[in-house]
Amino acid sequence: xxxxxxxxxxxxxxxxxxxxxxxxxxxxxxxxxxxxxxxxxxxxxxxxxxxxxxxxxxxxxxxxxxxxxxxxxxxxxxxxxxxxxxxxxxxxxxxxxxxxxxxxxxxxxxxxxxxxxxxxxxxxxxxxxxxxxxxxxxxxxxxxxxxxxxxxxxxxxxxxxxxxxxxxxxxxxxxxxxxxxxxxxxxxxxxxxxxxxxxxxxxxxxxxxxxxxxxxxxxxxxxxxxxxxxxxxxxxxxxxxxxxxxxxxxxxxxxxxxxxxxxxxxxxxxxxxxxxxxxxxxxxxxxxxxxxxxxxxxxxxxxxxxxxxxxxxxxxxxxxxxxxxxxxxxxxxxxxxxxxxxxxxxxxxxxxxxxxxxxxxxxxxxxxxxxxxxxxxxxxxxxxxxxxxxxxxxxxxxxxxxxxxxxxxxxxxxxxxxxxxxxxxxxxxxxxxxxxxxxxxxxxxxxxxxxxxxxxxxxxx
Length: 461
What we know:
Elements: E1 3-7, H1 11-23, E2 27-31, H2 34-43, E3 48-52, H3 60-70, E4 75-80, H4 85-93, E5 98-101, H5 106-137, H6 148-160, E6 167-170, H7 177-186, E7 195-199, H8 205-213, E8 214-215, E9 227-228, H9 230-233, E10 238-242, H10 249-261, E11 263-264, E12 273-274, E13 278-283, H11 287-292, H12 298-304, E14 307-310, H13 321-336, E15 342-343, H14 345-353, H15 359-373, E16 378-379, H16 386-401, H17 415-433, H18 438-444, H19 449-458
Parallel strand pairs: 1-2, 1-3, 3-4, 4-5, 6-13, 6-14, 7-10, 10-13, 15-16
Antiparallel strand pairs: 8-9, 11-12
């Protein structure tokens, strides 16, 4: 159903079109003059406006110009009983979506035009909805994932982003800690201010201090001019400090003071400067263990760890591997301009079986390499690295030998959840190999179609 406004100084046409489109299920309003239509347009938004061109007070073309300025998404249909080249040109120049000539078939023509326009509106709304859903589930910047663990991460990001609380992001290397930090920034009130990153492990202590806090001319050899530090550069925005666990004890003390007082003192200066910065830190180290062993300050840890976000390793969310692989395939397909548009079922199975010690970053590099080497139209096993193919072969050998090829982390596992996840993974893998044909997928898993349908419903597949 669309919201229509019919404008014509002939009341009989207004009444006819109102009856016609109400029968079609649309919400219809009418205006018998251009000025009356203008008042309605200025007070509400219509999906479609049907207007006569020639009216005594305000022409349809003038209404069209007004609508395109105030509500560009509104579809505008101009009708006329006196068609001329000039009116047709005006209709095109000012952005009319349809131009219909009055005649015996006016109602039929308009009914057909409105049906087409209503379909366009429906598609626009569905597209907008899907974009919002995709951003919610797989968006938030460049973070990709639809597993339950990643949905929890997305929800947490959306919850904490509007706050100014400090966030500590932990996880193995390559899990996307900077992407999470950037997503928090972009969904916060600081989104229009700077987002600045620094890898604390990439600088020796003296250079890290000058990078963070700035320095004055003559403070040290090579300091030929005054320079603001990253804290000042990020004023009003967000400073993302990666590898915070590699910071020296001396720098930890200085950082703690800045966080406590909200002031920085450039190297070589006697004056302090106020800074308003949201600090997000990240590490792949166990900071509590580092504290116990005397390498990280406990007071600084509690300053940083106001809101902890633990990112799962890729092997802990294997259901995201196909989605990520296709995401990278599409990116590299465009950048390399190659006709590779899919991943073979066998190659996808090997990607899903691999443990990914380098996590998402390793998968990204793998897909870039595969895209560069592939000469066909689908990524095959031959362009995967020997390490991935060898690992998959080892998994298959272990399965044949009856040796359980499992990974149990030191903290243990949730067995019931793991079993459910395994069942879901096998259903998805069978569907992938079967090309989405459920009966064939059920045969691959040695079960009746009825059972397969039960499990698919259970796991929302």
